[in-house]
Amino acid sequence: MNEPAIPPSTASASADPDCIFCKIARDEIPAKVAYADEHVFAFHDIHPQAPVHIVLIPRVHIRDVADARREHREELGRLLLAAAAVARDLGIEDSGYRLVINRGPNAGQSVDHLHVHILGGRGMGWPPWPE
Ligand code: 5GP
Ligand code: ZN
Q1: Ligand 2 mean position, distance from CA 131 (Å)
Q2: How far apart are CA 104 and CA 102, in angstroms?
Q3: Residues with Cβ within 6 A of ligand 1?
Q4: Per-residue pLDDT tens for 1-46?
Q5: 14-120 adopts what CATH topology?
Q6: Domain definitions of the chain by residue range
Q7: Which residues neighbour 26 within 8 Å (Cβ) at sequence distance 6 or greater?
Q8: CA dihedral 88, 91, 93, 96 (to 10 degrees)
Q9: CA 84/CA 86 separation, integer angstroms
Q10: Could you tell me the CA-to-CA distances from 83 to 33, 59, 89 in Å, in that order?
Q11: Whole-prediction pTM value?
């Protein structure tokens, strides 16, 4: 099977000096940190939607998942690996958790810096939308 067609690089993924998640990752806005390394940063959501609700971001500013490009493949992989590790560290692996990436305002994206929500610590019904 061929690789999916990914548009060529654009400038739209580059830094936004006013991005609140970049500021959190640079320690310019306080947050309760759950995990940090050279590539990813994870913090507790300010308005938790579950007993455990973590926001996990790449340190590099990518606007959203649709803006990710081939050169971000390693960062995207690191996000998933870190998500599983953070969930394990926070003790929600066995009870189950959900990873969510909202893309665009119609899907609930309110901060234009790609992020993964880690939601757990309670029953996570499926499907998550009303029948
Ligand atoms: P989105 O709605 O874009 O998918 O998710 C953004 C998330 O970031 C929301 O759940 C929101 O509560 C959280 N958030 C927004 N601003 C801040 C902040 O300044 N600090 C923390 N800890 N979380 C934030
Ligand atoms: Zn940013």
Answers
A1: 35
A2: 7
A3: 20, 29, 31, 43-47, 55, 102, 108-111
A4: 666 787 776 545 666 789 999 999 999 999 999 999 999 999 999 9
A5: HIT family, subunit A (3.30.428)
A6: 14-120
A7: none
A8: -150
A9: 6
A10: 14, 14, 10
A11: 0.93
